[in-house]
Task: structure prediction
Amino acid sequence: MNASEYMVHWRKKKIWNNLKLHYHQSRFRKCAELAVGKRIVDVGCALGHSTEWLRKMKPGAKWHGLDFDKAAVRDARKLFPNLRFSYSPTIIDFANFFEKGFDSVVCSEVIEHVEDDAEFVHHLKRVARRRVVLTTPVKYVNDPGHLRLYSEADLRGLCAPERCEITRDKMFYYVLIHIAETDA
Result:
């Protein structure tokens, strides 16, 4: 299922309403805490609701949303005109344009939708100067776009060779990838 097909599901189910739920808010709070620096990109932002929640939780940062569906980005710009949003057909194109362009990359609830997850993570690391923060569900979620569930070992394999910290809460894994040994 490509990004445009997934956005049909997102819109039909009005998934953005779920983002107000406690466990999603907890996930956003943790992502905002883990993100470092002033320039942060939210990869897979859909209609921009996640980027707006993250901005509220870390207001001193300049947040940028990225999605792989052109219509979603167009709508995000209308819904949240105070934020910057970009469309890219692939993560490779985005990484080529924004290599080391952000202090942190937040990619929450996206990796389980990606066919080539190792390549995807590689390009997320290319975009980040200091840190990549990933989250993914640890149990089955009734979502037509999910391709897999991850074990902790799977996630560590995707992170190598950088330092990787994994925190598990009741609902999600939080994966913190340090790109540099120090946060300089």
Observations:
- The beta strands are 39-43, 62-67, 84-87, 102-108, 128-137, 163-168, 172-178.
- The chain has a mean pLDDT of 91.
- The longest helix spans residues 22-34.
- Residues 3-178 form a domain with the Rossmann fold fold (CATH 3.40.50.150).
